[in-house]
Each structure stands twice: as structure tokens, then as C-alpha cells.
Amino acid sequence: MPVGVYLDCGAVLIGGLLGAGLKNKIPKRLHHPLTVVFGISAVLIGVVSFIKLHSMPAVILAMILGTLIGELANLDTRLKKLFKSVIDRLYLKIEGDVENYMNFYIIVAATFCASGTNIFGAMNEAMTGDMTILLSKAVMDIFAGAIFACILGYAMNLIVVPQFVILCAFFYLGKLIMPYISETTLRDFTATGGLITFVIGLSIADVKHFRAVNMLPSLALIFPISWMFSKIF
């Protein structure tokens, strides 16, 4: 059972509900600095994950091709439209500029749904039974969820649905492909996820906005590319 996945998604949901419910009681002057702190934390997590890489050429090639696919498919815009449609159907309130709101919303969604730490944590739990990574992430996510919900409101809780689906998918995928994944490929996968998490952190901290969602196909491409490089070199 993906207990770690349940705990992490539950933490985001609890944090989101608390943050949305108490948003008027938390001073707005705290929203930005705390958001920056979480962005920097994501940057650090990304760096720690990236240094575990085995083959830098494999990771770079996966990032280039994955981003190219994401840009051509326009994943960022498509997902923003999808989330915006659901938010509208549920009559949830969007405060301020809609474009800025949705840009931040999609970055937060990527943080919870597709960060390298979350995905690796789900696969690691499936492969080893150790949920320490997801448990540690849950501790941070309950606070991150609360702060992000102060900005996004109750609409942020919708993110838990794709988060749960994606992490469960990687959990069971981890069980399925475990016999075929080498240590070097797993390290390259972790590094690729770390690089995307690094980019997401920069966007959250408002250092530079990237369309990080368009980089997500890299997480799928790194498996065959890393395997190919391990056989050639």
C-alpha cells in the first residue's frame, strides 16, 4: 500500500484547507517571504537530487528533448486551461489578475504533483518499502500547502486529485519496472527530477518564471536515454 503517498497528499489537503480557511487571519506581509522560503527550499532539494546523477549527457539530452516535446505540445497552456475550467465549474473565486493567478497555480501544481522528490519518493517506497522521503516531504508540504492556499484559496485543494493519481501511478510503476531499473538509471532519473524541481523553485521564489510543466516529459525520456548511454559508454 502506498502509505507515504497517502500521507503526503493528506498533508497537502490539510494544509490547503487550513490556509484557505485562515487566509484572512494570516498577515499578507508574510505571504511573499514565506513563499520565497519554500521556493528556495525547492531549489535546495533540486540541487541535492541533481548531484546524484550518473550521466550528465543523458540528463541533458532528456531535458532538451523533453522540453522540446512539452513546448510543441504546449502542456503548460493546456493544463492551465484545464484547471481554469474546473475552477470555473466549481465557482471558486480567483483573486487578482487571472493570468498571474493561473501562472502561479500551475507552478504550485507541478511542485506537488511532479517534483523529483515526490516521484522518487513514491517509486522508492514501492521498491524498498521505505516511505521516509515522502514522510519528510509531507512535513514540509503541510506548511507549503497552507501558505500557497493563502494566495490561491480553496482552489488549491483541487491539486490533491492529480497529485494522488500521479504519485500512485509512479508507486505502482515502480513495482512493475523495479526488476529492470539499474542503479545508474535511477540516479539519472532522480537528477532529472531534481533539475525540474530546481527550476520550479526559481519560479516559486519569483527569481525567474519558467514554464516548468513543459519540461515534465523529460522524466519519461530519461529512462530509455540513460539505458542507452549506459550501453554505449
UniProtKB/TrEMBL annotation:
Q: Which UniProt keywords apply?
A: Membrane, Transmembrane, Transmembrane helix
Q: Does the keyword Cytoplasm apply?
A: no
Q: Transmembrane stretches, by residue range?
A: 5-22, 34-51, 57-75, 102-122, 142-173, 185-204, 210-229
In terms of InterPro entries, this protein maps to: DUF554 (IPR007563)
Which domain of life does the protein's organism represent?
Bacteria
The answer to whether UniProt assigns keyword Transmembrane to this entry is yes
One Pfam family name is DUF554
User: What name does UniProt use for this protein?
Assistant: DUF554 domain-containing protein
**Natural source organism:** Candidatus Eubacterium avistercoris
